[in-house]
Amino acid sequence: MKIQILGTGCAKCNTLTLATKAAADRLGLDYELEKVTDFLRFADFGVMITPALVVDGKLKVAGKVPSDADLEKLLQS
């Protein structure tokens, strides 16, 4: 599984990164985590507001940090 966190490195982006990693670890997922900070790549996913979570090339959430339970659901779907 490829997980990408799109963001500029702001506090919310860092929070999403840590929360996503923790959720993936709790679920025992085999994953690769990439932090994407290049604004031009954000557009590839149609992201206008960060932070954003992309799983296997599909945008799951943008503009907020989901709860731990929601993150787990997003990673399992």
SSE topology:
Elements (H helix, E strand, L loop, with lengths): L1 E5 L4 H17 L4 E5 L2 H6 L7 E4 L2 E5 L5 H9 L1
Parallel strand pairs: 1-2
Antiparallel strand pairs: 1-3, 3-4
What does this structure look like?
- This protein has 77 residues and is of the alpha+beta class.
- The chain has one domain: 3-Layer(aba) Sandwich (Glutaredoxin).
- 42% of the residues lie in helices and 25% in strands.
- The protein contains three helices and four strands, in the order βαβαββα.
- It has helices at 11-27, 39-44, 68-76, and strands at residues 2-6, 32-36, 52-55, 58-62.
- Strands 2-1-3-4 form a four-stranded mixed sheet.
- A hairpin with a 2-residue loop joins strand 3 and strand 4.
- Helix 1 packs across helix 3 (68-76).
- The radius of gyration is 11 Å and the shape is globular.
- The protein starts with a strand and ends with a helix.
- The mean pLDDT is 95.
